Amino acid sequence: MAVTEHQRLSYIASQAADARLNVELQTEEMTINLGPQHPATHGTLRLVARLDGEQVVSADVICGYMHRGYEKLTEVRTFPQVTTLINRIDWLSSFANEVPFILAAEDLMEIEAPPRAQYIRTILFELSRIANVSLFIGEMGVQLGALTPVFFAFRDREYVLNLIEAATGGRFHPNYDRIGGVKDDLPKGWIAETRATMDRLRGYCDELEDLLMGNEIFEARTRGVGVIPAAVGLNYGLSGANIRASGIDWDLRRDEWSPLAWKDLDWKVWTHPDGDSFARYWVRLQETREATRMVDQMLDGLPAGPIQAKVPRIIKVPAGESWVHTENPLGEMGYYVVSQGGLGPFRCKIRPASFNNISIVPWLLKGVYVPDIITILASLYFILGDIDK
Amino acid sequence: MLALELSFWQLTAIKTVIVLSLIPAGAVILGYVFLLKMMAHMQSRMGPMEPGGFHGWFQLVGDGIKFIQKEDIIPAEADRRVFALAPVVVLISTFLLYIVVPAGPDLVVQNLDVGIFYALAVSSLGVIGVLMAGWASANKFSLLGSLRAAGQLIAYELPLVLAVVGVVIQAETMSLQGIVGAQADGEILGIGWIGNPFILTQFVGFVIFIAAAQAELTQTPFDMPVAESELVAGYMTEYSGFRFLFFFMAEFGTAAALSAIAATLYLGGWYQPFVTGDLANIVGPLVLGAKVMLVAFLIFWMRFTFPRFREDQLQTFAWKYLIPLSLINILVTGVLKVVL
Amino acid sequence: MPELPGLAKGLGVTFRTMLETWRHGAVTVEYPKQKEAPTPRARGVIALKEENCTACMLCARECPDWCIYIEGHKEKRPPRREGGKPRTVNILDRFDIDYALCMYCGICVEVCPFDALFWSPEYEYSEAKIADLLHDKDKLGEWMATVPEPPPLEAGAVKKK
Question: Which pTM value belongs to this model?
């Protein structure tokens, strides 16, 4: 489309007028920089907000301070090495990062993992969800000024991390999923300990419901704050609890076929009609409880058998493309793996959940008070490693 | 009492020294017991265990020494004199509060007839110090914090004063010694030996006083000015070293002072049933200390449990709920005082 | 009974936790006076069983960080039987792992065809200088003493032959 001279000149003029207006208005507005180092942003996120008194006029999210070059790294690593690296994208629920990638590779190789392996994968996936979201439930309190819930979160989450360590060897970076199954079987006594831990976590959820969610001050701070209408959320590509809190009944565990064990379980997708920060908190609390119940069901129905299908020693994935996405704790995470028959992927596009989740922040923060910025950022719940890869 | 003839100035000097040493002592004790230990136990932690050996009792003293030996950093853009004066102003307001609180029948620095009125007036001097700190820091976040603080502290002065009016009506005097005396001499339903602590009749006033005191101390749930997760440390951001120590001592010293005033107004102060005369001068401070710890427990308990209010919600709470409630309290107290 | 306001319930939770901490103690483990034993599978440090290693370089190749440095040479050994050819064996000269780079992923332990590398839950090997984190085969061999037996598996598992 050719641009006429008139169009070009009028565009320049409008930019100049805008700039002049901004300069003239500069004396009335204050620009604050919730910089990369700030207690409120979960990591190195930068938020530049123009304030009029205590209200936000416009806000800009600047991410990328934690970019580690994952998509380039995956081009020069083999499949087992990539599995290790992608643990670190969303570090609070690391096992959940491995799963879609391994499923994509299995899809290309046309291998199916045995049922016991699928169950163990799903159990660990849900344990990662519990570890991740239980921290959110406590940590939202800290963002709002309640110091105590986050300590309960870390205390009770520790039991889940111990479980993951007992099974995989690593608390934070399990590196446990393999093409064709999982690495090791579960050690003796793990199932009983997991049941006890799930009970403990349900007690934790009840405690947090009394301490934080039922608190009138918490409700006053979060109800009606940061309302995301369902249509706007869908347009911005929100996923996970953020969109379920706006009333959209969409959960990839139920709505998309996956070889993992979710289809065998009897569970519920939680939604909330309001779409405000309180709704997002409420949905995540219910999801944590639901995840503990799902883990209990899976432990009851764990099939016996091998945990690894027959795979060649040196894995070469045949050429092809595969897109697999799963319902990760933060939202929808997906991997688009392009293989050209080599030892590693030719190209791997990572669709992290948090990047799309924070794309709504500039729209959402217009006209909001400064304390509510913190509430909204906290309720959207993003992890910087997930945003920046 | 002691059979010493001291001149007025010697006596004043001794009293000044005692009060000046009470402020850090009170701050350290309250800070250690509640901020470090009680908070830790409520969060399933242990608190300091190493410094000094037994449960880390030396932690805050060591912190104080550490602060004193730090480099004195003043931002280049800051207004130096105002910056340096601000913590001193806040500390002075704390110091002046300790003057009227009685610890025994004869143990009061100055038994003013308008004791409680004076105390409330003097506690509002701290607002000036906060504003000075925020403005002189040449930092946008500090400015935001101090403006929030000014609005909050001024708004919550009113419930504080009005809650006290109920006590004054019931005690018929503004002097703090007189209020303790009124509680000591009063009777509940004819039983005279336990006295009549005003918390029984002025329960609403007590709750309002505690809430307003919490706001005066900028404690959660009213700690918007010092909202750690937003403004780093609000008006105190640019302060380090011993200047920060002054703010810290002022905050906890005021907490101790306001708890002492609450204990005096509502719980009977230094009065212990069956203890009179000279023995009360020795037992009095201990009894007052115990009651101060009780009131401070309530204040800090609320601090560790609740999230913080937003600024406008804070103001709404003060103007639309606490003040009308305290006015109704005054009305009911006045009517009952005349009728009964 | 009317519902307690949320504020009161919250105060109840913190008060109960405080009593709980007084009665049963906190969950805190006062390291280094008390130490918690990690699980047998915990990935603490990698130990080397030198007699099994043939310097095949698989671990050094597969490491995502290339933190394993191997040098070896071939030597001739006398034949096993009379009249046979002399055998060549790989002698390991140098096997260093740079723990400043190691990601603790375990790929090297998995790919070793001769079971020369093992995981050990040992974690107290911090050094004052980063350069000191390059551990040689003697130190790696010392850690073999801390390698636990693989834990017994849950019911329903198929034992590897």
Answer: 0.86
